[in-house]
Every structure is written in C-alpha cells, then in structure tokens.
C-alpha cells in the first residue's frame, strides 16, 4: 500500500484553513457545546458494544453476513438508538461496502471518491486525507510492522485536538447532530475504539469475533458464509483488521441514509454511528 504524503496533506490543510475565518461567524448563532474530545467518546464505545451484542446472536460463528447485518438492528443505547433508524437494506449495503473497500485499497484517492459521491465538499478533502493517512501508516505488511493500540490512539487523539483547535465544531449533544468537523470527531472516536477492538479480536482467541475473523475464507463471496482454512499470516490478518477499522470510520463519514455532512442543520451522528456499525458487521473479512 502506498504511503500518502503527510507533508502535502498538511500544506493543503494550511491553504484550506485560511477560509475558516469566513465561516466562523456562522457558528456564533448555533450551539457549540464542544469542550473536549470526551464529548464524542460515547460514539466509539457504543460502536464496540454493538459489536459485542452482535456476537451474541444464535449460531454467530456460522451465521450468514446478511443475518448478522440485520441482527445489528436489535442493539440500542443512549448513543445508538435504532427506534428511528433510517438504515440501508442489504443490497444497498453491499454497494456501499464495495465502495468503501475500494477506497481502502486506494487511499490516495479515497477522499476524491467521497467528494465525487457528494458525501463531502472539496474543501473538506484535506482534513479527510489526514485521517486516512493515519490508517495508511497503521500497518506495513511488507515490513511486518503495525501500530500498537497506544500508538494508533495517540495519533488519532492528536488529530482530534488539531480539529478542535482549527475547525469550528458545531455539535448539538441532545439532538446528536453536528457539522463536518463534529462528524470527523465522531469518526475519530470510532477509529480509536474500533482499532483496539479489532486488533484485540485478531490476537485473542477467546474474543467473540476471533473465529469469524481468522477462519472466514477470503475466496467466498459475501453470501457464501462458509468457514474456510485458518489465515496463517498474522500481518495479513492485521491488514484485514485495519481494513475493517477503516470501513467503520469511513462508513460514518459516508453515512448511508443519514443525510449529508453539509446539510443545513447538520448530520444526525447517532444515525451515522448505527450505519457504521452495520457496515462493519456486514463486512466479510
């Protein structure tokens, strides 16, 4: 996987951030309750709890991906309310998952895909690229290295602090809605919690997802649902884990039927977090 140019991304951010002051006045008439990244911690935690819940479904290890996808609708908590879920169906999920997996395979072009699909605005691409660069640098299968949970978390938290320091974050905690910067913080919360979850699931044979992660035959299609030979290359396993983590975070940014990030009243982040969890649950490997 190619390494993205962090320096180029930072230079692009400097250029685009010059336009932020023009938009800052718009935030004065809106609720901006954000004090720290802790305001968003619940989203990532809820995402992981949803994964734990999904693993309790009957015959989980051999269940079809479609059944797992829909079983995700049975989980709810304060950050993850399915009562008003505007969730995608299985066919739409497959289409979006193919897009997200393609983005992970070509991270240099991933933000352009989101722009072209009208998920984000062109001026949002540099900040999105910064997040994707962290994923790109998380693992090197060629060098048999990967970032520890602590290292990855530290990079994400530094990125979160960068967002808070340089972008107007409009976030209504009661309604669970927010602007682009708020949604990016939600994606960061998913990223760091998901990284810990899926890396541990890969390493810990007692983890409820371990069997599916390591025994899923990569040659099966998403409807095949057969359990194949054990994947023996640990770093390939890590690579698949990071791919799943990317889909988790990018799935929130895309948001399915949850509205666009740049909608007038902001995007429903609670809806997007549900969408991200369902995308993750319905991913093959």
UniProtKB/TrEMBL annotation:
Keywords noted in UniProt: Signal
Signal sequence residues: 1-20
Keyword Signal attributed: yes
Protein's recorded name: Lipoprotein
């Amino acid at each position: 996987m190619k390494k993205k140019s962090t320096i180029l991304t930072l230079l692009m951010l400097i250029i685009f951030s010059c336009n932020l002051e023009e938009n800052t006045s718009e935030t004065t008439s809106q609720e901006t309750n954000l004090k720290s990244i802790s305001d968003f911690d619940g989203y990532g935690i809820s995402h992981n709890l949803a994964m734990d819940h999904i693993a309790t479904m009957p015959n989980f290890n051999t269940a079809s991906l479609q059944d797992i996808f829909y079983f995700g609708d049975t989980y709810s908590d304060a950050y993850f309310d399915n009562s008003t879920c505007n969730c995608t169906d299985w066919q739409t999920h497959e289409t979006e998952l193919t897009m997200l997996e393609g983005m992970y395979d070509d991270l240099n072009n991933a933000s352009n895909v989101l722009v072209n699909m009208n998920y984000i605005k062109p001026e949002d691409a540099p900040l999105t690229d910064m997040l994707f660069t962290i994923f790109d640098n998380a693992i090197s299968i060629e060098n048999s290295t990967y970032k520890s949970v602590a290292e990855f978390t530290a990079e994400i938290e530094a990125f979160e602090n960068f967002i808070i320091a340089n972008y107007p974050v409009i976030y209504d905690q009661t309604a669970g809605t927010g602007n682009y910067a708020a949604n990016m913080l939600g994606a960061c919360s998913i990223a760091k919690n998901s990284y810990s979850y899926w890396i541990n699931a890969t390493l810990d044979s007692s983890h409820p997802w371990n069997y599916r992660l390591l025994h899923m035959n990569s040659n099966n299609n998403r409807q095949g649902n057969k359990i194949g030979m054990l994947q023996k290359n640990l770093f390939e396993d890590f690579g698949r884990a990071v791919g799943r983590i990317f889909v988790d975070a990018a799935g929130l940014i895309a948001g399915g039927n949850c509205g666009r990030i740049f909608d007038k009243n902001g995007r429903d982040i609670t809806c997007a977090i549900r969408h991200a969890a369902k995308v993750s649950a319905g991913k093959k490997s």
